[in-house]
């Protein structure tokens, strides 16, 4: 699989997503690392770390960041299959997971 992105656009969106998490929860720290380029099956793609005075805030913020990354971060996935390469479409399940955070704080 290959993950493609436009660096300036992606970096800004990741920063915006992280800032939104910090506004919603009282985080003392957060970190997002998202890989791109050619990846092999089983490779790890994303790391999200949150720290807060209270575990619920850290866990909720982490879940929010993962859900928002899946639906709002501008990455495009291309899989190589036996029939040739194909772009991976967005999944309804990812949108459904992210919907729990719309309007919530």
From TrEMBL:
Gene Ontology annotations of biological process type: Mo-molybdopterin cofactor biosynthetic process
Organism superkingdom: Eukaryota
InterPro entries linked to this entry: MoaE_sf, Mopterin_biosynth_MoaE
Pfam families the UniProt entry points to: MoaE
Stored PANTHER family: MOLYBDOPTERIN SYNTHASE RELATED
Name under which the protein is recorded: Molybdopterin synthase catalytic subunit
